[in-house]
Input
Amino acid sequence: MDALALLCNLHADGPATLHRLRRAGCESIPALEDLSLGELAEQLRTDEEGARRFQREAALLAARMRGEGGESGVELDGADPSGGDLPTVATGLPDQEPEEEFRAPEVDRVLAKWRSLDRDAPPLPPGEFLVPRPPASQAGNRALEEVGIEGLDTDLAERLSELGILSLRGLRDAVTVDLARDLALPFTRVRRLQFLAKRAMEELEEELPVESEASTRLDTAGPFA
Amino acid sequence: MQIWALANQKGGTGKTTTAIHLAGALAGHGKRCLLVDLDPQAHATLGMGVAVEEGVSIASTFLDSTPLRRVIRTTRAGFHLAPSEVRLGEFEEVAERSLLPEGILAGALGEVSARYDWVILDCPPRADGVLTRNAIRAATMTLLVVETGAFALQGALRARRLFEEQTRELGRPLPLRLLATMFERDSPMSREFLIALQARFRGIMLDTVIRRDEVLRRAVACGIPAPNLDPNADAVDDFEALAEEVAGIAQEADSWIPRGACSPPTFQPEVHPLSDDVVPEPR
Ligand SMILES: Nc1ncnc2c1ncn2[C@@H]1O[C@H](COP(=O)(O)OP(=O)(O)OP(=O)(O)O)[C@@H](O)[C@H]1O
Ligand SMILES: [Mg+2]
Output
Protein backbone atom coordinates (compact mmCIF):
# COMPACT_ATOMS: atom_id res chain seq x y z
CA MET A 1 0.00 0.00 0.00
CA ASP A 2 1.62 3.23 -1.07
CA ALA A 3 0.85 6.68 0.31
CA LEU A 4 -1.77 7.41 -2.34
CA ALA A 5 -3.61 4.17 -1.55
CA LEU A 6 -3.47 5.03 2.14
CA LEU A 7 -4.85 8.50 1.46
CA CYS A 8 -7.72 7.02 -0.59
CA ASN A 9 -8.60 4.62 2.21
CA LEU A 10 -8.44 7.34 4.84
CA HIS A 11 -10.29 10.10 3.04
CA ALA A 12 -12.10 8.69 0.01
CA ASP A 13 -13.71 5.51 -1.22
CA GLY A 14 -10.60 3.32 -0.95
CA PRO A 15 -9.62 1.16 -3.93
CA ALA A 16 -12.43 2.52 -6.12
CA THR A 17 -11.03 6.06 -5.87
CA LEU A 18 -7.47 4.76 -6.15
CA HIS A 19 -8.26 3.00 -9.44
CA ARG A 20 -9.89 6.11 -10.87
CA LEU A 21 -6.95 8.31 -9.89
CA ARG A 22 -4.45 5.86 -11.36
CA ARG A 23 -6.46 5.64 -14.56
CA ALA A 24 -6.35 9.43 -14.71
CA GLY A 25 -2.56 9.14 -14.64
CA CYS A 26 -2.15 10.08 -11.00
CA GLU A 27 0.19 7.56 -9.35
CA SER A 28 1.36 9.37 -6.21
CA ILE A 29 0.43 12.12 -3.77
CA PRO A 30 2.65 14.75 -5.42
CA ALA A 31 1.02 13.91 -8.75
CA LEU A 32 -2.32 15.06 -7.35
CA GLU A 33 -1.10 18.59 -7.93
CA ASP A 34 -1.19 17.97 -11.67
CA LEU A 35 -4.98 17.58 -11.53
CA SER A 36 -7.18 20.66 -11.57
CA LEU A 37 -9.68 20.97 -8.76
CA GLY A 38 -12.48 20.10 -11.17
CA GLU A 39 -10.68 16.99 -12.44
CA LEU A 40 -9.92 15.86 -8.91
CA ALA A 41 -13.53 16.41 -7.84
CA GLU A 42 -14.65 14.28 -10.77
CA GLN A 43 -12.32 11.41 -9.84
CA LEU A 44 -13.42 11.63 -6.21
CA ARG A 45 -17.10 11.81 -7.19
CA THR A 46 -17.47 14.90 -5.06
CA ASP A 47 -17.68 18.67 -5.44
CA GLU A 48 -14.82 21.16 -5.51
CA GLU A 49 -15.08 21.73 -1.77
CA GLY A 50 -14.65 17.96 -1.23
CA ALA A 51 -11.69 17.95 -3.60
CA ARG A 52 -10.10 20.84 -1.73
CA ARG A 53 -10.52 18.98 1.57
CA PHE A 54 -8.90 15.90 0.00
CA GLN A 55 -5.95 18.02 -1.18
CA ARG A 56 -5.54 19.40 2.34
CA GLU A 57 -5.54 15.89 3.79
CA ALA A 58 -3.02 14.81 1.14
CA ALA A 59 -0.65 17.63 2.08
CA LEU A 60 -1.02 16.85 5.81
CA LEU A 61 -0.39 13.15 5.26
CA ALA A 62 2.65 13.81 3.08
CA ALA A 63 4.09 16.23 5.63
CA ARG A 64 3.41 13.81 8.43
CA MET A 65 5.08 10.94 6.64
CA ARG A 66 8.13 13.02 5.94
CA GLY A 67 8.14 14.12 9.56
CA GLU A 68 8.07 10.54 10.83
CA GLY A 69 10.98 9.75 8.56
CA GLY A 70 8.87 7.15 6.82
CA GLU A 71 8.55 8.88 3.50
CA SER A 72 11.01 10.62 1.28
CA GLY A 73 11.22 12.01 -2.18
CA VAL A 74 8.57 12.06 -4.82
CA GLU A 75 6.96 8.64 -4.38
CA LEU A 76 6.81 8.98 -0.59
CA ASP A 77 8.03 5.44 -0.19
CA GLY A 78 10.96 3.51 1.15
CA ALA A 79 10.63 3.15 4.93
CA ASP A 80 11.96 0.11 6.69
CA PRO A 81 9.08 -2.33 6.36
CA SER A 82 10.40 -4.73 8.94
CA GLY A 83 9.24 -2.95 12.06
CA GLY A 84 11.50 -1.17 14.49
CA ASP A 85 10.10 1.47 16.80
CA LEU A 86 6.36 1.40 17.06
CA PRO A 87 4.30 4.54 16.68
CA THR A 88 2.52 5.29 19.92
CA VAL A 89 -1.02 4.60 18.79
CA ALA A 90 -1.73 1.00 19.72
CA THR A 91 -2.98 1.41 23.25
CA GLY A 92 -6.06 -0.08 24.88
CA LEU A 93 -9.47 0.56 23.47
CA PRO A 94 -12.67 -0.44 25.23
CA ASP A 95 -13.57 -4.07 24.74
CA GLN A 96 -15.79 -4.87 21.79
CA GLU A 97 -19.44 -4.60 22.68
CA PRO A 98 -21.17 -7.98 23.05
CA GLU A 99 -23.07 -9.46 20.10
CA GLU A 100 -26.63 -8.30 20.45
CA GLU A 101 -29.72 -10.35 19.73
CA PHE A 102 -31.31 -9.42 16.45
CA ARG A 103 -33.92 -10.47 13.97
CA ALA A 104 -33.15 -8.47 10.90
CA PRO A 105 -35.82 -8.28 8.20
CA GLU A 106 -33.27 -8.96 5.49
CA VAL A 107 -32.48 -12.32 7.10
CA ASP A 108 -36.10 -13.27 6.51
CA ARG A 109 -35.90 -12.08 2.93
CA VAL A 110 -32.79 -14.14 2.25
CA LEU A 111 -34.33 -17.20 3.84
CA ALA A 112 -37.39 -16.69 1.63
CA LYS A 113 -35.17 -16.61 -1.42
CA TRP A 114 -33.38 -19.78 -0.43
CA ARG A 115 -36.69 -21.46 0.23
CA SER A 116 -37.69 -20.83 -3.34
CA LEU A 117 -34.33 -22.18 -4.52
CA ASP A 118 -34.95 -25.28 -2.47
CA ARG A 119 -38.35 -25.70 -4.06
CA ASP A 120 -36.90 -25.53 -7.57
CA ALA A 121 -33.93 -27.81 -6.84
CA PRO A 122 -34.58 -29.68 -3.62
CA PRO A 123 -31.40 -30.80 -1.87
CA LEU A 124 -30.69 -34.46 -1.46
CA PRO A 125 -31.76 -36.09 1.79
CA PRO A 126 -31.18 -35.64 4.68
CA GLY A 127 -32.40 -32.23 3.63
CA GLU A 128 -29.85 -29.90 5.04
CA PHE A 129 -31.86 -26.89 3.93
CA LEU A 130 -35.35 -27.92 5.04
CA VAL A 131 -37.16 -24.62 5.08
CA PRO A 132 -40.73 -23.41 4.79
CA ARG A 133 -42.50 -22.38 1.63
CA PRO A 134 -42.82 -18.66 1.05
CA PRO A 135 -46.26 -17.17 0.50
CA ALA A 136 -46.84 -17.12 -3.24
CA SER A 137 -47.41 -13.62 -4.51
CA GLN A 138 -48.51 -12.47 -7.91
CA ALA A 139 -45.95 -9.70 -8.01
CA GLY A 140 -43.22 -12.15 -8.93
CA ASN A 141 -45.16 -13.27 -12.00
CA ARG A 142 -45.14 -9.82 -13.58
CA ALA A 143 -43.43 -9.87 -16.96
CA LEU A 144 -40.11 -8.07 -17.07
CA GLU A 145 -41.19 -5.79 -19.93
CA GLU A 146 -44.19 -4.60 -17.92
CA VAL A 147 -42.05 -3.34 -15.08
CA GLY A 148 -39.46 -0.65 -15.65
CA ILE A 149 -36.13 -1.85 -14.27
CA GLU A 150 -33.19 0.50 -14.51
CA GLY A 151 -30.60 -0.87 -16.91
CA LEU A 152 -32.89 -3.51 -18.38
CA ASP A 153 -33.50 -2.50 -21.98
CA THR A 154 -35.45 -4.47 -24.58
CA ASP A 155 -32.32 -6.12 -25.91
CA LEU A 156 -31.38 -7.44 -22.48
CA ALA A 157 -34.99 -8.47 -21.78
CA GLU A 158 -34.92 -10.45 -25.01
CA ARG A 159 -31.70 -12.22 -24.07
CA LEU A 160 -33.17 -13.03 -20.68
CA SER A 161 -36.29 -14.47 -22.29
CA GLU A 162 -34.07 -16.68 -24.44
CA LEU A 163 -32.70 -18.05 -21.17
CA GLY A 164 -36.26 -18.67 -19.99
CA ILE A 165 -36.29 -15.71 -17.60
CA LEU A 166 -39.51 -13.83 -18.22
CA SER A 167 -40.69 -12.65 -14.82
CA LEU A 168 -39.45 -10.61 -11.89
CA ARG A 169 -39.26 -13.76 -9.81
CA GLY A 170 -37.32 -15.58 -12.53
CA LEU A 171 -34.75 -12.80 -12.59
CA ARG A 172 -34.58 -12.49 -8.81
CA ASP A 173 -34.09 -16.21 -8.26
CA ALA A 174 -31.61 -16.94 -11.06
CA VAL A 175 -28.15 -18.04 -9.95
CA THR A 176 -26.09 -14.86 -10.36
CA VAL A 177 -22.86 -16.53 -11.40
CA ASP A 178 -24.58 -18.55 -14.11
CA LEU A 179 -26.57 -15.60 -15.35
CA ALA A 180 -23.51 -13.35 -15.52
CA ARG A 181 -21.75 -16.00 -17.54
CA ASP A 182 -24.69 -16.64 -19.88
CA LEU A 183 -25.25 -12.94 -20.50
CA ALA A 184 -21.53 -12.13 -20.60
CA LEU A 185 -22.20 -9.31 -18.14
CA PRO A 186 -20.23 -8.34 -15.04
CA PHE A 187 -21.35 -10.19 -11.91
CA THR A 188 -22.04 -6.93 -10.06
CA ARG A 189 -24.29 -5.65 -12.85
CA VAL A 190 -26.35 -8.86 -12.80
CA ARG A 191 -26.59 -8.72 -9.03
CA ARG A 192 -27.80 -5.13 -9.24
CA LEU A 193 -30.50 -6.15 -11.75
CA GLN A 194 -31.57 -8.95 -9.42
CA PHE A 195 -31.68 -6.54 -6.52
CA LEU A 196 -33.86 -4.16 -8.53
CA ALA A 197 -36.16 -7.04 -9.51
CA LYS A 198 -36.48 -7.99 -5.87
CA ARG A 199 -37.25 -4.42 -4.89
CA ALA A 200 -39.82 -4.07 -7.66
CA MET A 201 -41.50 -7.24 -6.38
CA GLU A 202 -41.62 -5.88 -2.86
CA GLU A 203 -43.11 -2.63 -4.07
CA LEU A 204 -45.69 -4.46 -6.17
CA GLU A 205 -46.50 -6.82 -3.34
CA GLU A 206 -47.70 -3.88 -1.33
CA GLU A 207 -50.14 -3.08 -4.13
CA LEU A 208 -51.19 -6.60 -5.16
CA PRO A 209 -53.11 -9.14 -3.08
CA VAL A 210 -51.19 -12.23 -1.98
CA GLU A 211 -52.48 -15.49 -3.50
CA SER A 212 -52.31 -17.65 -0.41
CA GLU A 213 -51.00 -17.12 3.07
CA ALA A 214 -48.76 -20.15 3.51
CA SER A 215 -47.04 -20.52 6.83
CA THR A 216 -43.61 -18.99 7.15
CA ARG A 217 -42.79 -21.00 10.24
CA LEU A 218 -39.74 -23.25 9.91
CA ASP A 219 -40.83 -26.82 9.18
CA THR A 220 -37.79 -28.26 10.82
CA ALA A 221 -34.82 -27.05 12.76
CA GLY A 222 -32.45 -26.41 9.90
CA PRO A 223 -29.06 -24.77 10.18
CA PHE A 224 -30.73 -21.35 10.15
CA ALA A 225 -33.39 -22.07 12.75
CA MET B 1 -3.86 -23.23 -8.23
CA GLN B 2 -3.55 -20.33 -5.80
CA ILE B 3 -3.56 -21.32 -2.13
CA TRP B 4 -3.91 -18.40 0.27
CA ALA B 5 -3.67 -18.99 4.02
CA LEU B 6 -5.47 -16.37 6.11
CA ALA B 7 -3.68 -16.24 9.42
CA ASN B 8 -2.84 -14.31 12.56
CA GLN B 9 -2.07 -15.68 15.98
CA LYS B 10 -4.31 -12.97 17.41
CA GLY B 11 -7.96 -13.98 17.77
CA GLY B 12 -10.92 -12.13 16.31
CA THR B 13 -9.08 -10.13 13.64
CA GLY B 14 -11.52 -11.05 10.88
CA LYS B 15 -9.78 -14.09 9.37
CA THR B 16 -12.93 -16.17 9.07
CA THR B 17 -15.14 -13.32 7.89
CA THR B 18 -12.54 -12.45 5.26
CA ALA B 19 -12.10 -16.08 4.22
CA ILE B 20 -15.83 -16.57 3.64
CA HIS B 21 -16.38 -13.35 1.75
CA LEU B 22 -13.18 -13.48 -0.27
CA ALA B 23 -14.07 -17.02 -1.35
CA GLY B 24 -17.56 -15.78 -2.25
CA ALA B 25 -16.23 -12.83 -4.24
CA LEU B 26 -13.75 -15.03 -6.13
CA ALA B 27 -16.54 -17.49 -6.92
CA GLY B 28 -18.61 -14.54 -8.09
CA HIS B 29 -15.85 -13.84 -10.60
CA GLY B 30 -16.22 -17.37 -11.93
CA LYS B 31 -13.22 -18.80 -10.08
CA ARG B 32 -13.45 -22.38 -8.89
CA CYS B 33 -12.86 -21.83 -5.22
CA LEU B 34 -12.48 -24.07 -2.18
CA LEU B 35 -12.55 -22.78 1.39
CA VAL B 36 -10.85 -25.03 3.92
CA ASP B 37 -11.90 -24.48 7.53
CA LEU B 38 -8.79 -25.28 9.56
CA ASP B 39 -10.16 -24.08 12.88
CA PRO B 40 -11.54 -26.61 15.38
CA GLN B 41 -13.98 -23.84 16.41
CA ALA B 42 -15.45 -24.39 12.91
CA HIS B 43 -16.55 -20.76 12.59
CA ALA B 44 -16.29 -20.74 8.80
CA THR B 45 -18.43 -23.88 8.67
CA LEU B 46 -21.02 -22.38 11.00
CA GLY B 47 -20.75 -19.05 9.23
CA MET B 48 -21.79 -20.75 5.98
CA GLY B 49 -24.74 -22.38 7.71
CA VAL B 50 -23.38 -25.83 6.92
CA ALA B 51 -24.39 -28.64 9.26
CA VAL B 52 -21.52 -31.09 9.46
CA GLU B 53 -22.23 -34.77 9.39
CA GLU B 54 -20.12 -36.14 12.20
CA GLY B 55 -16.94 -37.67 10.89
CA VAL B 56 -17.14 -36.02 7.47
CA SER B 57 -14.94 -32.98 7.84
CA ILE B 58 -11.38 -31.84 7.42
CA ALA B 59 -10.77 -33.53 10.78
CA SER B 60 -11.22 -36.90 9.02
CA THR B 61 -8.57 -35.90 6.50
CA PHE B 62 -6.11 -35.06 9.25
CA LEU B 63 -6.99 -37.86 11.65
CA ASP B 64 -8.19 -40.74 9.43
CA SER B 65 -6.53 -39.91 6.07
CA THR B 66 -9.95 -39.49 4.41
CA PRO B 67 -9.38 -38.04 0.91
CA LEU B 68 -10.21 -34.34 0.86
CA ARG B 69 -12.73 -34.70 -1.97
CA ARG B 70 -14.88 -36.89 0.26
CA VAL B 71 -15.37 -34.16 2.83
CA ILE B 72 -15.94 -31.24 0.45
CA ARG B 73 -19.41 -29.70 0.41
CA THR B 74 -21.04 -27.13 -1.82
CA THR B 75 -22.32 -23.88 -0.39
CA ARG B 76 -24.95 -21.32 -1.32
CA ALA B 77 -22.22 -18.80 -2.05
CA GLY B 78 -20.90 -20.62 -5.10
CA PHE B 79 -17.71 -21.99 -3.58
CA HIS B 80 -16.91 -25.34 -2.06
CA LEU B 81 -16.18 -25.88 1.61
CA ALA B 82 -14.11 -28.42 3.48
CA PRO B 83 -15.91 -28.08 6.81
CA SER B 84 -14.39 -28.43 10.23
CA GLU B 85 -15.53 -29.82 13.57
CA VAL B 86 -14.29 -29.74 17.14
CA ARG B 87 -12.58 -33.11 16.69
CA LEU B 88 -9.94 -31.36 14.56
CA GLY B 89 -8.46 -30.09 17.82
CA GLU B 90 -7.28 -33.64 18.56
CA PHE B 91 -4.81 -33.34 15.72
CA GLU B 92 -2.50 -31.06 17.71
CA GLU B 93 -1.94 -33.97 20.10
CA VAL B 94 -1.81 -36.70 17.45
CA ALA B 95 0.72 -34.65 15.50
CA GLU B 96 3.29 -35.04 18.26
CA ARG B 97 3.45 -38.76 17.47
CA SER B 98 3.35 -38.39 13.66
CA LEU B 99 5.99 -38.15 11.03
CA LEU B 100 5.87 -34.83 9.13
CA PRO B 101 2.45 -33.84 10.48
CA GLU B 102 2.71 -30.42 8.87
CA GLY B 103 2.71 -31.90 5.36
CA ILE B 104 -0.77 -33.48 5.46
CA LEU B 105 -2.73 -30.55 4.04
CA ALA B 106 -0.32 -29.94 1.18
CA GLY B 107 -0.69 -33.63 0.21
CA ALA B 108 -4.48 -33.52 0.45
CA LEU B 109 -4.72 -30.34 -1.63
CA GLY B 110 -2.42 -31.86 -4.21
CA GLU B 111 -5.13 -34.42 -4.94
CA VAL B 112 -7.71 -31.76 -5.84
CA SER B 113 -5.36 -29.24 -7.41
CA ALA B 114 -6.74 -29.70 -10.92
CA ARG B 115 -10.26 -28.98 -9.72
CA TYR B 116 -9.81 -25.51 -8.25
CA ASP B 117 -8.37 -22.17 -9.24
CA TRP B 118 -8.30 -20.92 -5.68
CA VAL B 119 -8.06 -22.43 -2.22
CA ILE B 120 -8.61 -20.20 0.82
CA LEU B 121 -7.39 -21.58 4.14
CA ASP B 122 -9.03 -20.19 7.28
CA CYS B 123 -6.47 -20.72 10.04
CA PRO B 124 -7.10 -20.95 13.77
CA PRO B 125 -5.73 -18.15 15.97
CA ARG B 126 -2.46 -19.99 16.72
CA ALA B 127 0.33 -19.16 14.36
CA ASP B 128 2.65 -21.75 15.86
CA GLY B 129 0.15 -24.64 15.99
CA VAL B 130 0.47 -27.61 13.67
CA LEU B 131 -2.70 -26.68 11.77
CA THR B 132 -1.38 -23.24 10.85
CA ARG B 133 2.01 -24.81 10.03
CA ASN B 134 0.15 -27.13 7.64
CA ALA B 135 -1.52 -24.11 6.05
CA ILE B 136 1.69 -22.17 5.62
CA ARG B 137 3.49 -25.15 4.16
CA ALA B 138 0.68 -25.70 1.63
CA ALA B 139 0.12 -22.02 0.81
CA THR B 140 1.38 -20.09 -2.16
CA MET B 141 0.66 -16.95 -0.13
CA THR B 142 0.12 -16.20 3.55
CA LEU B 143 -2.26 -13.33 4.16
CA LEU B 144 -1.85 -11.79 7.57
CA VAL B 145 -5.29 -10.49 8.55
CA VAL B 146 -4.92 -7.54 10.92
CA GLU B 147 -7.66 -5.64 12.65
CA THR B 148 -7.16 -1.85 12.66
CA GLY B 149 -7.66 -1.83 16.42
CA ALA B 150 -5.72 -1.94 19.64
CA PHE B 151 -2.43 -3.86 19.57
CA ALA B 152 -2.80 -4.39 15.83
CA LEU B 153 0.75 -3.37 15.12
CA GLN B 154 2.37 -5.41 17.87
CA GLY B 155 0.23 -8.40 16.87
CA ALA B 156 1.15 -8.05 13.21
CA LEU B 157 4.87 -7.75 13.96
CA ARG B 158 4.76 -10.80 16.23
CA ALA B 159 2.86 -12.81 13.64
CA ARG B 160 5.30 -11.78 10.97
CA ARG B 161 8.21 -12.92 13.12
CA LEU B 162 6.51 -16.28 13.75
CA PHE B 163 5.89 -16.80 10.05
CA GLU B 164 9.45 -15.92 9.25
CA GLU B 165 10.70 -18.54 11.70
CA GLN B 166 8.60 -21.09 9.86
CA THR B 167 10.03 -19.90 6.59
CA ARG B 168 13.46 -20.85 7.84
CA GLU B 169 12.14 -24.35 8.67
CA LEU B 170 10.54 -24.57 5.24
CA GLY B 171 13.70 -23.62 3.43
CA ARG B 172 11.88 -21.46 0.89
CA PRO B 173 10.72 -17.87 0.86
CA LEU B 174 7.32 -17.24 2.39
CA PRO B 175 5.28 -14.86 0.29
CA LEU B 176 3.44 -12.69 2.78
CA ARG B 177 0.82 -9.97 2.42
CA LEU B 178 -1.09 -8.02 5.00
CA LEU B 179 -4.76 -7.08 4.92
CA ALA B 180 -6.22 -4.49 7.29
CA THR B 181 -9.79 -5.17 8.43
CA MET B 182 -12.53 -3.60 10.55
CA PHE B 183 -11.42 -0.13 9.50
CA GLU B 184 -13.61 2.77 10.62
CA ARG B 185 -13.01 5.84 8.54
CA ASP B 186 -14.93 8.03 10.95
CA SER B 187 -12.82 7.00 13.91
CA PRO B 188 -9.58 9.00 14.38
CA MET B 189 -8.16 6.06 16.34
CA SER B 190 -8.85 3.63 13.52
CA ARG B 191 -7.24 6.02 11.02
CA GLU B 192 -4.16 6.24 13.24
CA PHE B 193 -3.90 2.45 13.32
CA LEU B 194 -4.10 2.30 9.55
CA ILE B 195 -1.40 4.95 9.16
CA ALA B 196 0.80 3.07 11.63
CA LEU B 197 0.31 -0.22 9.78
CA GLN B 198 1.09 1.37 6.44
CA ALA B 199 4.22 2.98 7.88
CA ARG B 200 5.58 -0.42 8.92
CA PHE B 201 4.20 -2.75 6.27
CA ARG B 202 3.68 -0.71 3.14
CA GLY B 203 5.66 -3.14 1.00
CA ILE B 204 3.37 -6.07 1.76
CA MET B 205 0.13 -4.31 2.68
CA LEU B 206 -2.76 -4.65 0.25
CA ASP B 207 -4.38 -1.51 -1.15
CA THR B 208 -7.77 -2.85 -0.18
CA VAL B 209 -8.91 -2.28 3.36
CA ILE B 210 -12.00 -4.01 4.72
CA ARG B 211 -14.21 -1.53 6.50
CA ARG B 212 -16.14 -2.35 9.63
CA ASP B 213 -19.64 -3.13 8.47
CA GLU B 214 -22.44 -4.41 10.62
CA VAL B 215 -23.73 -6.58 7.79
CA LEU B 216 -20.65 -8.80 8.15
CA ARG B 217 -21.43 -9.55 11.76
CA ARG B 218 -24.98 -10.44 10.85
CA ALA B 219 -23.81 -12.48 7.88
CA VAL B 220 -21.52 -14.72 9.87
CA ALA B 221 -23.98 -15.04 12.74
CA CYS B 222 -26.84 -16.09 10.43
CA GLY B 223 -24.83 -18.32 8.12
CA ILE B 224 -25.75 -16.13 5.15
CA PRO B 225 -23.04 -14.32 3.15
CA ALA B 226 -23.25 -10.51 3.18
CA PRO B 227 -24.09 -10.08 -0.54
CA ASN B 228 -27.24 -12.12 0.07
CA LEU B 229 -28.20 -9.90 2.96
CA ASP B 230 -27.45 -6.57 1.35
CA PRO B 231 -25.87 -6.43 -2.11
CA ASN B 232 -25.30 -2.68 -1.71
CA ALA B 233 -23.36 -2.89 1.56
CA ASP B 234 -19.90 -1.31 1.82
CA ALA B 235 -18.55 -4.72 2.76
CA VAL B 236 -19.65 -6.17 -0.57
CA ASP B 237 -17.69 -3.49 -2.45
CA ASP B 238 -14.67 -4.07 -0.23
CA PHE B 239 -14.59 -7.80 -0.91
CA GLU B 240 -15.11 -7.21 -4.64
CA ALA B 241 -12.06 -4.93 -4.54
CA LEU B 242 -10.14 -7.49 -2.51
CA ALA B 243 -10.96 -10.28 -4.97
CA GLU B 244 -9.78 -8.10 -7.84
CA GLU B 245 -6.58 -7.20 -6.06
CA VAL B 246 -5.66 -10.75 -5.05
CA ALA B 247 -6.50 -11.98 -8.55
CA GLY B 248 -4.07 -9.38 -9.89
CA ILE B 249 -1.36 -10.54 -7.50
CA ALA B 250 -2.01 -14.14 -8.47
CA GLN B 251 -1.83 -13.29 -12.14
CA GLU B 252 1.57 -11.69 -11.63
CA ALA B 253 2.74 -14.79 -9.79
CA ASP B 254 1.31 -17.05 -12.49
CA SER B 255 2.77 -15.09 -15.36
CA TRP B 256 5.96 -17.10 -15.26
CA ILE B 257 4.08 -20.44 -15.15
CA PRO B 258 3.77 -22.00 -18.64
CA ARG B 259 0.56 -21.01 -20.44
CA GLY B 260 -2.16 -23.63 -20.20
CA ALA B 261 -1.14 -24.72 -16.73
CA CYS B 262 -4.09 -22.78 -15.28
CA SER B 263 -7.62 -23.83 -16.09
CA PRO B 264 -10.08 -21.25 -17.37
CA PRO B 265 -12.70 -19.99 -14.92
CA THR B 266 -15.73 -21.99 -16.00
CA PHE B 267 -16.85 -23.32 -12.67
CA GLN B 268 -20.45 -24.34 -12.11
CA PRO B 269 -21.31 -24.28 -8.44
CA GLU B 270 -23.53 -27.07 -7.22
CA VAL B 271 -25.96 -27.06 -4.35
CA HIS B 272 -25.65 -30.60 -3.06
CA PRO B 273 -23.14 -32.40 -0.89
CA LEU B 274 -20.44 -33.79 -3.11
CA SER B 275 -19.76 -37.39 -3.82
CA ASP B 276 -16.93 -38.66 -6.00
CA ASP B 277 -18.91 -38.21 -9.20
CA VAL B 278 -20.02 -34.64 -8.76
CA VAL B 279 -16.73 -32.96 -7.95
CA PRO B 280 -16.43 -30.61 -10.92
CA GLU B 281 -13.93 -31.73 -13.49
CA PRO B 282 -11.41 -29.21 -14.77
CA ARG B 283 -12.26 -27.93 -18.20
N1 LIG C 1 -15.24 -5.96 8.70
C1 LIG C 1 -15.98 -6.31 9.77
N2 LIG C 1 -16.99 -5.49 10.18
C2 LIG C 1 -17.75 -5.81 11.26
N3 LIG C 1 -17.58 -6.91 11.98
C3 LIG C 1 -16.60 -7.78 11.63
C4 LIG C 1 -15.75 -7.53 10.50
N4 LIG C 1 -14.87 -8.57 10.39
C5 LIG C 1 -15.16 -9.40 11.40
N5 LIG C 1 -16.18 -8.94 12.15
C6 LIG C 1 -16.75 -9.54 13.35
O1 LIG C 1 -15.71 -9.67 14.31
C7 LIG C 1 -15.78 -10.90 14.99
C8 LIG C 1 -14.51 -11.72 14.75
O2 LIG C 1 -14.39 -11.98 13.37
P1 LIG C 1 -13.85 -13.38 12.80
O3 LIG C 1 -14.53 -14.53 13.44
O4 LIG C 1 -13.89 -13.29 11.32
O5 LIG C 1 -12.36 -13.30 13.32
P2 LIG C 1 -11.28 -14.47 13.35
O6 LIG C 1 -9.96 -13.81 13.18
O7 LIG C 1 -11.61 -15.54 12.41
O8 LIG C 1 -11.46 -14.99 14.84
P3 LIG C 1 -10.73 -16.30 15.46
O9 LIG C 1 -9.34 -15.88 15.74
O10 LIG C 1 -11.52 -16.59 16.71
O11 LIG C 1 -10.82 -17.39 14.45
C9 LIG C 1 -17.03 -11.58 14.47
O12 LIG C 1 -18.09 -11.27 15.31
C10 LIG C 1 -17.24 -10.96 13.11
O13 LIG C 1 -18.59 -10.98 12.73
MG1 LIG D 1 -11.79 -17.61 12.73
In short: Confidence is low (pLDDT under 50) at residues 70-104, 123-136, 209-225 of chain A.
